[in-house]
Each structure stands twice: as C-alpha cells, then as structure tokens.
Design brief:
heterodimer; A: mainly alpha; B: 323 residues; ABC transporter involved in vitamin B12 uptake, BtuC; two-stranded antiparallel ribbon
C-alpha cells in the first residue's frame, strides 16, 4: 500500500499537517460517539469545552496551566521515543521530581530567590531523572522492557510517596497526606501577578512562571534532538540499532541518556504543581498528566513544534472538560481519559489508516496543476 | 491446628489471587508466540471486569456477563490486530491506546449509567459466581491430611480458579503438540518461512489474538463477578502487566509462566497477611511499603532474566509480505 506513493513527491504539509488533522478529526468523532453513549449531547459538550477554555480570562489561564504540564510530559515521552523507548513512567518520575523541588525549596531558603528557583528546576530534573535511571539501566543492560518496568515504577513511586507523606514528611499539624507549605517568597509568580504589573486586575488562575520554563524546555529539546551529537546518536539508536552500533554509537549509553533526560522533563511537571499551584507536595499530584503526555507526544509527532499545539489542545480538553463535567452530570473526567486513548489510537497506532489514500490524492491533484 | 488453617488460607488466597494472572499470562502467550506484543492485557482485563459485571446485572445471569465480556475482549484484540497486523502500526502504541482508552471508558460509562462513584451495582448471589464445594468435601473433612488437602485447600474455590489451572496443560498441549501450535510458534519466530510454506501469516496472528481475547475475558470476569460483586475504577490494578512479566519470566512457556504467576500470587497473599503484623527484628512494616512489594518483585524478576534470548524472534515486528 505504502509503496504506491513516492514519498519524496508528497509535500511536507500533507504528511505532517493534513494527515494528523484527519486522524484528530476521526478521534474526536469517535469521542463524540462516547459522549452520546453516555447519554449527553456531543455538540453541547463541544460548546461547553469552548466556553470553558476560552470564554473568560481565568479560563484561558487554566487552559495554559494545563498546557504547561502537557508540554513537560509530552516532551518527556518524545525524547525517549526518539530512542525507541516507551517511557510510560512519566507519572512516577513527576511524582518523585516533586521531592527534588520540595527538598530545594525547604533547604536552600538562605539563597536569593531566583537562585533557589534555578536549583528547584535542577532538583526536579535530578529526582525525576533518577527515578528513570533504574528502568533505563535494566533496559540497556538486562533487556527488561521499559514499558513494564516504568509502569511498575509508577506503582512503586505511588507506594513510596504515600508512605513518605503519611509517615515521614507530613505536615503534622494537618490531617491530610501532604507536606508543609514552602516559603511564600519562593512561590512562582502567577498570571495574576504579571497582569498586576501592567495595572490589569484579573482573578486567580493557576497559570504561572512554569509556563515560560516549559517554553524554554521546548527549545531545549529541539536543540538537543536535532542540533547536538547526543540527539543524533539517540535518533540513530532509535532508527536502527544495528547500524548505530556499526557506526560506533553505543546503544547502552544512549538508552540511559535518553531515559534520564526524559525522566528529568517529566520531573519538571512538579515545578508547575508545587512552586506554581499547591506550594506543597500533596498525595497524587501528577493526576494522570504523565499518561496524557503520551497522547500529546504522539499527536505532536514527537517534535516540539507539534507538541506545543498538541499540549494546547489537551489543555483545552482538560479545562473545557471540567466545564463539561460541571454541567453534564453523566460525564466525569474519566471520559476525557478515554478521549486521550482514542487520540493515541488514531494518531499513533492507526496513523497509517488513511495516509496512503490522502497522500496519493494530493500527489495526483498537485501533479495535475503542474501539467496545466 | 491454627498454623494449619493459616497455611491453608495462605495457599487458598495464593491460588485465588494468581487466577487472573494465569488467564492473562496464557492469553498473552498466544499473542506473543504469534509475534504480536500484548501490553493491552491490562486494559482488556479491566474491560472484561466492567462488561461482565454490567452484563450480569442487566441480564441477571453471570454466564451472560461472561459471554459479553468475551465478545468485548475479542473485539479489542481485533482492534489491536487491525492497527498492528493489518495497518502495521506500532504494536506498543496500540496497546497503550487500548489501556488508556479502557481505563477511561469503563469508569466513564459506569459513572454515566450507575452514578458518579463509577461503581456498577452490587450483584446478588444468583447474578455472580460463587465458591464451589467439591463433592464429599464435608464428609472427608475429618480425615487427617487427605481431608486437609481435599476439603480445606482443593475445595471451596470459584469456578475460575479450577478453570485457570486446568487451562495450563491445555495451552501446553495446543501450543506444543498440535499443528496449529507449531504454526503459531513458527509465525512468531520466522513469518516469512511460514508464508513460503503457504500459511497465511495475518490469519494466524488474528486467530492467536482471538484466543487471547477469549482467555483474558475470564480474568476480568473472575475479578468482578466472582471475587468481588461489582466493578470499580481501575480494579485490575496492574495485574495485566504483572501477568506479562510472569510470561516473560516464564520464558513464554505455559509451565514456567504459571509458576511465576503463583509466585506473584503468593507474594501478594503474603503482603496482605503481613499488614500490621509485627515481625521479629524489623518491627511493623508500613502498609504503603508492603503494598509496593509485588511491583518491586516484578522489576527484580525482570532484571534477573535477560528476556531477549527467549522472546519469539519476530515479536513486535509487523509482517510485510514481499511483492
């Protein structure tokens, strides 16, 4: 099938824009069907999603706050995927990353605030990366599949963190499983604070400085994957391990590097959640964002330029989705987990469903134009 | 005598807890031996649990629930085949999609149909599978040793427990003693050779996936219509992945895979017994840490064993017929 179209004749925008958009449309149609089965009106749901995510300024703030999380976890999955590794442990890596942020924020209060922030970024990355290290090592040296080990590490992280939050680092003046709050001057400035600088008064939304960190991470990953030797080697291992070995590239080293960077990016999710929003570690704060990163990365074709709009789309779905769950009693947030699954199916596993037809259609049309 | 009953209850819970793992490992064995990775055991088990509980409730029959669960799981297996065999999509991505889709959809539909908590209604005793007392179990109870083994350990399990352990020799026979099994293994090892011999690689993989769907449905039905009397959110709790780890640790062989499943089941049973118990030298281990033990064990087992050498050679690769 795929051999019927000469790949070099297909314009880039057909394979990288039209085909993903067709896949996304199919996924959203199927999702509409689910909403219908659950007994609600899909068109009404779309209206609510649009209002919830764009209808008012705080809604936009929430949308971009979710976008921040999905940029981090989407990039995390993408970096590992370039080395053909399925890091589905973003959830656990983000959870443990929170420990790094908290550790820095509690122990380095004597330093100037911007320095503490930088150290917190390093802390999130180090702890998140460390949690990815064992699965990485086992994949590289023992051939233990990362899909199983990273999932297991999610469960282990959850057990460990609940243990720590209940028995070790709990705020003993409170009942709930969470830590004490970090010092107020270390909290990331929010969208509201920025707006106030320009004399604009808006109400609170959780959007904060982490968004800019996420944008910086997008540039970092683009540079890493396409402009450095490391990125080249990772992609080489991912594309063809045998050829990479022949070219003198070590798959072991690159598997470990890719997983460490991936874990570090997932860990940075905790910056947004801890310094930006909760200001403490609360039980279960990664709340599924790690898994959503898989859908974001696959939809964004594992490229930062694709991940940004994909993360934004999921931000819309999350924020708009909470509007839907508020207004439609039959829809819970799990419906939007299902939507993620459908998106992964159509833009990941079934991405070639209509690709040959679409590509040959455009090649034919464009050739005709040239002849005329 | 108390030690005896403790021992019996530990063995009983091991057998019960291992049951869904055994079904899932056997289901995974068919798919993986044919060359198709199946990480979606988890999502399918969850689907089966939801469909079996819902079906039993609406039709008032646990068997109807099981039949519907089989249909649902075979459909998901076919979807996996459609994406990864027919359209040559990435097999792992397809599995991850099925898992995330079903984690969301089962709870979303349970909430939409039965209320916000995402639980299905509690099944009455005639809508679910009950423990079976084997014949003469009561009469033999007082006989030393024989009574202990027959009445206290072998008798009194759910039907799925017996089915699971009887399934293992059947799977062994199918995979290693029949021509179907030979073809199945050949498709997973060297699909182009099988193709040359005139056997349809795609059809074989679809057949393997169909069996996979049937078997995994039993695991889910065991969870929601036997051990529990309803479905609840994410009730499979990683068992699909544990079963896959057991399959890998058991070198894709039914006999060793079932031993690995029993090891997981035993660890889990022990974990439950150890909660809140004071141990000599160590003291009481916090519950949260104990609950992590089966997952840590999975990682250790996977680490202690190099999987590549025993995996079916063509696993994970879509078959592309040459023209």
């Amino acid at each position: 099938m795929s051999s019927s179209v000469d790949k070099s004749k297909v314009p880039w925008w057909v394979s990288n824009l039209i085909v993903p958009l067709v896949n996304l449309t199919l996924a959203l149609l199927v999702s509409g069907l689910f909403i219908f089965i659950a007994g609600e009106n899909p068109i009404q749901a779309v209206k609510l999603i649009m209002y919830g995510s764009f209808g008012y300024i705080e809604g936009i703030g929430y949308t971009l706050y979710y976008t921040t999380n999905f940029i981090f976890t989407g990039l995390a999955f993408a970096v590992a995927f370039h080395c053909r590794l399925f890091n589905i442990g973003g959830e656990g890596q983000a959870y443990i990353g929170g420990l790094g942020v908290f550790f820095v924020a509690v122990n380095f209060t004597f330093l100037p605030v911007p320095i503490v922030w930088l150290l917190a970024i390093v802390g999130a990355a180090l702890f998140g990366g460390a949690w990815a290290f064992i699965p990485a090592y086992l994949q590289a040296k023992r051939g233990s599949h990362v899909v199983i080990t990273t999932i297991m590490f999610n469960f282990i992280a959850a057990s460990l963190m609940v243990f720590l939050l209940v028995d070790v680092i709990r705020d003993t003046n409170q009942m709930g499983p969470h830590t004490i709050a970090v010092a107020k001057e270390l909290w990331f400035p929010t969208f509201k604070d920025f707006a106030q600088l320009f004399g604009i008064k808006i109400r609170y939304s959780p959007l904060n400085l982490s968004f800019l960190v996420a944008i910086a991470a997008l540039f970092f990953v683009w540079f890493l994957i396409w402009k450095t030797k490391w990125g080249y080697e990772m992609r080489a291992v991912g594309h063809n391990t045998q050829a990479a070995i022949y070219a003198g590239i070590s798959p072991y080293k690159n598997i470990i590097i890719a997983m460490l960077i991936s874990g570090a990016l997932a860990g940075m999710l905790s910056l947004n959640e801890i310094l930006g929003v909760h200001h403490k570690i609360i039980a279960g704060f990664p709340a599924g964002y790690g898994f959503t990163g898989i859908a974001v990365a696959l939809m964004g074709r594992n490229h930062p330029i694709g991940i940004l709009p994909a993360a934004f789309l999921f931000g819309i779905l999350y924020q708009g989705g909470s509007e839907v769950t508020f207004d439609m009693p039959n829809i819970t947030r799990y419906m939007f987990v299902a939507v993620q699954g459908v998106i992964i199916l159509f833009s990941g596993a079934l991405e070639n469903l209509f690709r040959p037809q679409i590509e040959s259609f455009f090649v034919k049309v464009l050739n005709k134009e040239k002849i005329v | 005598m108390e030690y005896f009953s403790d021992f019996a209850s530990l063995i009983n819970s091991t057998l019960r807890i291992s049951t869904p793992l055994v079904f899932a490992a056997m289901a995974g064995l068919f798919a993986e031996r044919s060359g198709v990775i199946d990480f979606s055991l988890e999502g399918k088990m969850l689907t089966a649990a939801f469909v079996a509980a819902t079906g039993s409730y609406f039709f008032g029959s646990e068997w109807m629930g099981l039949v519907l669960a089989i249909m649902a799981c075979v459909s998901l297996s076919m979807l996996h085949g459609f994406a990864s065999v027919t359209h040559k999509g990435d097999q792992v991505v397809s599995c991850v999609a099925i898992n995330i889709l079903m984690i969301g959809l089962t709870t979303a539909l349970a909430a939409a149909w039965f209320g916000q908590a995402g639980l299905t209604p509690t099944l009455t005793n005639d809508q679910r599978f009950l423990e079976i007392t084997l014949p003469f179990a009561d009469a033999l109870k007082s006989v030393p040793l024989v009574g202990f083994i027959y009445s206290d350990i072998l008798s009194g399990h759910y039907i799925f427990v017996y089915m699971a352990y009887l399934l293992v020799p059947v799977v062994y026979w199918i995979v290693f003693k029949t021509s179907f099994g030979l073809r199945l293994r050949a498709v997973g090892e060297n699909p182009s050779a099988v193709d040359t011999a005139g056997i349809n690689v795609f059809a074989m993989r679809y057949k393997a996936l169909a069996i996979n769907g049937v078997l995994i449905a039993f695991a889910g039905a065991h969870l929601s219509t036997a051990v529990n009397a309803n479905f609840f959110r994410e009730m499979s709790a990683g068992r699909g992945y544990l079963a896959l780890a057991a399959l890998i640790f058991g070198k894709w062989h039914p006999k060793t895979a079932v031993l690995a499943c029993l090891l997981f089941g035993f660890t889990d049973a022990l974990q439950i017994r150890l909660q809140g118990v004071e141990l000599p030298m160590i003291g009481t281990i916090p519950v949260q840490l104990i609950q992590g033990i089966p997952y840590v064990l999975t990682v250790i087992l996977l680490a202690g064993f190099v999987g590549k050498a025993f995996a079916p050679s063509a696993i994970g690769q879509p078959y592309i017929k040459e023209r």
